[in-house]
Amino acid sequence: MAALPLEVRDLRTTLFTRRGEMKAVDGLSLSVGAGETVALVGESGCGKSLSALSIMRLLPDPPARIVGGSVKLNGRDIVPLPEDGMLDIRGKEIGMIFQDPMSSLNPVATVEKQIVEVLMTHTELGRGQARVRAHELLELVGMPDAARRLDAYPHQLSGGMCQRVVIAMAIACSPSVLIADEPTTALDVTVQAQVLSLLKKLQADAGMAMIFITHDLGVVAETADRVVVMYAGRKVEEATVDDLFEAPLHPYTAGLIGATPTPGAERAARLADIPGMVPPLNALPRGCAFAPRCPKVMERCRSERPALTVPAPGRLVACFAAEAG
Amino acid sequence: MSLLALKDVRVHFNTAAGVVRAVSGVSLDLAVGETLGLVGESGCGKSTLGKAIMKLVPVAAGEIVVEGTNIAPLQGAALSEMRRKVQMIFQDPYGSLNPRSTVGRSISQPMVLAGWTQGAIDERLETLLGWVGLPSDARQRYPHEFSGGQRQRIGIARALALSPKLIICDEPVSALDVSVRAQVINLLEDLKSQFGVSYLFISHDLSVVEHIADRVAVMYLGTLVEVGARDQIWRNPQHPYTKALLAAAPIANPKLARARQRTVLQGELPSPLNPPAGCPFHSRCPIAQDRCKEERPVLRPVASGAQAACHFV
Amino acid sequence: MQRFEFLGRFSRNRGALVGACLILVVALLAVFASLLFPTDPLRIVGMPELWPGEDPDFPLGTDSLGRDILAMIVHGARATLLIGLFASAVATLIGVSVGATAGYFGGWVDEIAMRAAELFQTIPNLIFVLTIVVILGSTLTNIVIAIGIVSWTPIARMTRAEFLSLRDREFVQACRSMGMGDFRIILTEILPNALPPVIVLSSLVVAGAILFESAVSFLGLGDPNVASWGRLVGDGRQLIRSSWYICAIPGIAIMITVLCLNLVGDGLNDALNPKLRDR
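ok -> structure tokens follow
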């Protein structure tokens, strides 16, 4: 059997700060198949962005460092690779799209120059061929008036167009894995819809494995095949998108779904809110990190940390209450 | 008498590149005890309209009538009197509080300006903190000691201090996490049923607006394109832009999301520096015809019972 | 709470801590100068041109007239520090007022204020100070004001930049929406947030002012009634070939003080700049 495009095993990333060590990513395992979209969901501070940066080996060091686990990209573990080995991999085998398209582009270089540079770093293409390919890529990502936009600078483009350029750069070398970190959060609703359908189409055409990081359950429902819910650096639930929305097992997942208003549904008197807030990483409770906010909390949850269990085929959950049924 | 009546309000900004008509002729009513949702994409002028009502930006033309008084021309003391009736909650829970002021000082500012005694302020402070669910020792602490949701509660307490009739909420939950967002929305709804305060709820998030608003106004490029009751807008949108917005909004339900017909609106918001002639939406509109390029449609009653600004509904 | 955090961050910078201690020593010497050396430092007390260590009564030696250099240094510290502090205060006052007004109101007010700042920046500073002192007379007050006038422009620019970024913040809008007046917003809301970088700059202006005053005094245009360190250097310059220590000792005092002020400025910058926290 061929190796999966991306297999993350027991990934641990720790932040070493003056206030002590914080386990930002605590034993995350995750695999993404070709053509599959896995959504990584959670609130700010849950470790989803740091997980993505760990996989890309783009962590700000100091303070963050990978302290354990493996990240297998097409069967090869990239955690022990030296930095210059990563330079060949990033952009070629694994691409990334960031939240803020404006700041992920170089403000003083034209669109063409930036795409050509990516192509010339990772492929054998000459400058002339790279230019032709850059034009093709812009057409591919649906840039209106692509030929003219090649000479544009990022500030002359709107947020949606910049995100298209970033996507073009990310897929320029046909990576097998694409990581999208809140790619539509900074965009307007109608532009968000455009970018989401673009990403879906590109992924389907190229059979890329995609990790989609977002806090927006609406976006998850629209894009994901499988969902991983994170809380305080750990995976608390994993399921297919239908199972997850149909019958969330972890009280946190249920809380997130209840807290998101669904258009078209009968008007609920109140949204189901989750009391309290995400605990800071340096002050995690001893037992289950969600225990202080959990409606189903039991005595055991406060002293013991629940491990991931398999309640049904293809599902994972870390919760004593869910185990008990 | 409506609590707030806007009559042909216009806001213009002079920039180096020319005059930007951020709000070009908006007329709108808001009844006592009502929550009016104002939705639109960034740059459509919804926040500017909110700031114009607060007189934070100069109003070029039109009337802003609060309880029968046009506040647009008011200055000085007369304006301060009116300001007590209308307060504002801001988007950014990190930016809307002075980082060097204690929470108590921030919340008591409107009362200090209104000339309250220290004793009365202290008493009110205690009540306000209780209403928004903050511990009473919060008053001598600084904003950086609080989370985003708590800071938004502080902002709400400050807005409530002088018992306003209307609160303008400018994207009050956009910067918050999902679970905290629900807490703040519930708090706003509780306060409304408790005190009968009205909201002008400005947001780009349609699902939040649908949840909280009684009536909805949809804005595009400085003008209103559709105004109607919540159900009229959501069940039976008339204006092509409203339809496109609703179609684009993600639904947190995978089955519904797959089932619905999705027509993705092409193109992006034109620059407000040189808006298209005629209907501002015609450059992106799927049903645009020649008439739309020349004649600007006005807001008029349509079949659904709402009002829409389109020649062809 | 915040105070302790500030002290903690400041003392993390070793150089700044050393600088602050030395400045404290100089300040204490200045304050207790009359107790340590009750007699007039300008009185002739011994043989002229005694080298340091030659006579245990005068550990730093005597100058060409036979005055105790140590006593003059200790008394001079008072004049030098006062000149630095007051000149910096004048510069900060002008700079903050101009910068705050320009940054808050913007438009033509900003335009005028910044053109004025540019005008002052194009004038060679030392020549401008000398001109004022020559025309108005070399009194301490005139020197302090002259130095203040040439040193305010960087403070004004810094204050303006801070105000520009703060005036559109939502907490300022919140104050405006409550009907708070412009003057009150500037003074009680924006200024406290704009001050940290300005304080850093002001501490550096103190160092600059001390150097200015030394230069003026060295050229013999200082206040003749004040024995600042600069004047001591100037007085010794005729004998620089034979008895160079007369120049060198006050020179070293100036150097150390200015260096320490710069270290303190760096430390303040680290401590007050929230972006560097937790590194």
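Chain C is about 75% helix and 0% strand.
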